[in-house]
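FIELD: query
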Amino acid sequence: PFHDFPEGPDWWDTPDYRAVIAQLPKLRMNFIGLHCYPERNWDPELTVWIGLEEDVRGDGDVEFSYPASYANTWRPEWGYQPKDTGDYLFGASLLFPSDGYGPDVMDGWLPTAESPGNSNEAFNGTGDMLSEAFDLADALGVTTCVGTETPLTIPAKVQERMRERGIDPASDEGIKAAYRGIFERAARAYAPDYYWLWTPEGWTWSGTTDEQVEATARDIELALEALEDVGDPMTLGTCGWVLGPPRERSLFDDMLPPDSPMACINQQVGVAPVEPAFADIDGRPQWAIPWLEDDPAMTAPQLWVSRMRRDAQDALEYGCTGLMGIHWRTRNVAPMVSALAKAGWRQDDWRPLQELDLRPAGHRAVGGTTVTYPQDIDGTDDDPLYRSVRYDLRGYVFQVENGEYDITLRFCEPHYDDPGRRVFGAALEGERVIDSLDILERVGKNHALDFTYEDVRIEDGWVDIEFIPIVELPAIAAIDVVGEDTEIHINCAGPAYEEYQVDLPVMPPPPSGPPSGDFYLDWARALFGPRAARPIAEVFESVDGRLPRPATWVGGPGGLLPDPRPMEEVEGEYAFVDELAALRPLVTEAGALDRFDYWLGTFRYMESMAHVRVHWAQLQAALAASDVDTAEAAYRQLVASLEDVYQHLLPVVTTPGERGTVMNWEGHILPSVLAEPTAQLEALRGEPLPGDWRPRGDYRGPLSLRSPVRTSLVRSGESIPVEALVLSESGAASVRAVYRRIGSRSWQGVRLTNTGRGCWQGEIPAADATIEYYLECVTRAGERAIWPASAPSVCETVVVWE
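FIELD: result
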C-alpha cells in the first residue's frame, strides 16, 4: 500500500492496518512494505522519522522532529484544495465526523503537526500504530518493510540541528549520521524486517547523468555502513520506480550484499511489463511489483486480472523470488489482489470463458489522453496538425481493404524542454520501425518531425500502429494512411483541419496478458452465487483490461478532463453496465446481492463520471461562445450529473480509501469542473445563479449502513473496534453492535457513540473465544438497517487468538 493520497494508507488507523495484515496469510501472502516521501514541496510523511540517534529514546519515541503530516482534508497537495467536509455536496459530509479529517495520529494537529511538541506526538503516534501492526505481522509470519527515496533528503529542521552539533548534513558523515538515526529509531519503534531505498522517481521519465547515478550509489554505500554501525537490526534492500539507471538496470547488483533484495515497480504506472533486467541478477532476493491499480485513474474502478497474470508469469521466468503489488485502495482492487496471490503459487489452467472480438469495426485510437498547445510550430506550414498530440497511448487501428499503404507518422514535442524526457519506439504491423525516438534530441521543441513508410502490406484488414514507451509517455500529432483507393488522415487530439479529420474514438486496449475467464468464474461464484456466476464472469472478463478511463492525472490523481464527444458515443462505452444490471435478478442471497450492488454501484458511478465530462465540455463550449441560454442548460445538466455521481458513490464508501475518493472529488475535481464554470457563468449572466440551480448539500437517498473497518482477528483479551457510517435523511438515532460467542444462543449489544454526523464508533468487549457480530441502526424516522446485509444468519466473524 502506497502512501501519499487520501485513497491510500494515509487514512489508515491501527485497526485498518491490522485488518489488512490479518487477511494476508489467508491469501498465502506474507509481506507488507511502505514507502515514505521525505521533505519535498509539501510536508514530509510520518512513516519514517529522519534525525540523529541522540534524539531517539529507548522505546523508539523521538524528542526532536520537524513539521510532518499525512494527507488530510485541510492539507493542500497533489492538486487537492483544502475544504471543510461540512461543505461537501449531496450528503457526503455525513461520512466525516468533523470539518478537518485525517488519520488518528494527526488528531488535533491538522493540517500539519508543525510545532516541535505536536510533531513529536505525531511521529510517536505513528510509531505506536506501526508497532501494533507489525507485532501482528510478526506473529502471523508476515514480513514488514519501510523505506525512503535515495539519495536521502534530510529535512531542513534536521539539517539545522546537525549544524548546531558541528555535523555537515551534506557530508558523508552527515548522511551516515542521519541513516543511523533512521535505522535506530525504526528498530526501536516498530522493528521492520527490511528497509528499502527507492531509486529516484525521475529516472522513470527523465535522462540520468553519471553524477546522479554516482550520488545514488554513494548514498546506498553510506546507508549500508550506517546500518552496520547500529548492529544491522534489519536488512537493507533497494526498490523504486526503476530497478536501476537506464544505462544498466542491474547496476546495484554488484554493490549490495547477497542477502539484500532488489525490487522495483513496473514502469508506466503498470502498463509496462515486469523489468526484464531481473533476469540479469542471480544469487539474491528479487521482488517484482506490478500495479494493482494506477494513480492517474485513481477515482475510477480498474480491472487488471489478465495483466496481473502476465506480470506473475514474467516474474517467475526472470527468476524473481518475490511477487507483490502496489496499490492505494483495498476493496475495489480485490480481484487483482486475489489474482496476483493465486498466480504466485500456480500459473497453469488459465483459460477464457469465450472468444471475444476485441476490435470494433472502423478506426480507433487505443488509449491515450489529448492535449493542445498554442505555440507556433517550426518545420511546417500546417501548425494546427502539430499543436495537439495524443499521449500515453498504445496505438491506432484502422480497418481497411487488404493491400499496400503508405503510412506517415507525424510527431512534435510541445511540452518538454530537455532531451531525454520523452523517448519511445513505434511498430507497424508488429514490425519495429522506430527503435528509440527522442523528438527533442532530433529536431528540438515545437518542431514538426515526419516519418513515412511506403508500401506497408496489409493482409488481415487492419492497419496496426503500436507505440512502445521507453522513457515517459509516447505522443503522436497526426497520422496518414494512403492506399490506392483509401485515404485516411487523422489530426491526433485535434479538430478537423483541411483533409484531416477530428481524432478518433478511443478503443480500450486489448487484454495485456493471459485469459482471465476462469478466475472471474471462480470469483463470481464465491461472491454472487452459482446461478449468477457465469454470466457475471462473462461481463467482467469482457472489460478486464479494457474498462473506459474517465479519470486521468490532472495536477494530481484521478482528475477529469472535458469530453467533447457526443453523449451517445460515450454511453456506448458503458453498455456493459446495463448488461451487468440485467443479471441482478439471478442473485438471490442477501449478502451476495449486497456485494453485487457494490460493483454495480461502482460501475454506475464511473458511468456518471463520463456524463459529467460531456456536460462540462458542453458548458465550456457555450461559455466560450457567450451563449447564455445554452450555457444555463448545460450547467443544470452538469449539476444533475454530479448528483448522479454522488448518488452512486456514497453507498459504496465502505473503506477508508473510498472516503478518500470523496475528498478527491471535493478538493481536486470540483474546483475545475464546478467552481470555475459557476464563476464564468455568473459573469456572463451579470448576476448570481438562482439558489436552486446550485448543487445541494443535504443527503436525499435510501438509508445505508456500512462499516469501513473489518476486524477479523484479535488476541485474547483485546477488545474489538467497531465503526459505522450511516447515510440517512433523518439521521441515526442509535447504532449498536450485536454480538455473541460462536455456538451461543444468547446475543448481547453494545451501543456505539456518535463521533459526528453519520459516523459512529465503539468497541465490543474482549472475549476469550471467537465471536460473531452485526451492526444495527435505527433512524430518527424509525427506519432500521443492519450490516452485513446477510445478518443475523451470516454475520461478521472475529477469531480470538491465543
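FIELD: remark
The longest strand covers residues 388-399.
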